[in-house]
Amino acid sequence: MSKQELEVIGQDAACCAGLSAAPLDADQAAELAKVFKALGDPVRLRLMSMIASRGEGGEVCVCELTPAFELSQPTISHHLKLLRQAGLIDCERRGTWVYYWVLPGVLDRLAAFLTAPQTAGATA
Description:
alpha+beta, 3 strands
């Protein structure tokens, strides 16, 4: 299986500055929209959560993901493919099984983008 080159969004300083720091340009908005669209489906959001919960550098076999859903294996594979295309996860085939992991820094960049700066005197 060949490795697909994925552009990980949010690595430039303008994106990581956060939503409230400056307006997005058209390219930044298009790239972030792909990510949010991928995460906008409940199945994909659960899959992402299951993979991310393994922690930094952790990985999960597709054989562990599929039983958690009442969906066919091809449907689960389709959802995982969309998460890969959005630049959120990557995978590697090992024998019969495919192992998935969250790309390094993806969740931190998304969190930083969505975090509003704290102002003096602000309370949670």
